[in-house]
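Please, structure for the following, as tokens.
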Amino acid sequence: MPNRHCYKCGWEFTLPGSPARTESCHQCHADLRICLNCVHYDKKVAHECRERRADPVADKISANFCEYFDFIKREWKGAGAADAAEEKARAKLKKLFGD
């Protein structure tokens, strides 16, 4: 079942509502109100955000004042799970192009 997790360590955020700007993970102390924890974050779109009304945020892993922040619910797959999938895709491309 998808829940709200810290992007860095997977600690589950169980409080109702969204975290405050200064709130951090109780386990690893990473900021919680960040782009990487938002439903609008998407590496494939402009400014890595699907919310077109939001101001661009340069630092995606630091707390910010975005008024469109909505904590994403997801399955925790462990730190680096997305990086592992990206590396696997890059390896396939290298093999395809003979690099």
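Residues 1-99 form one domain. The radius of gyration is 15 Å.
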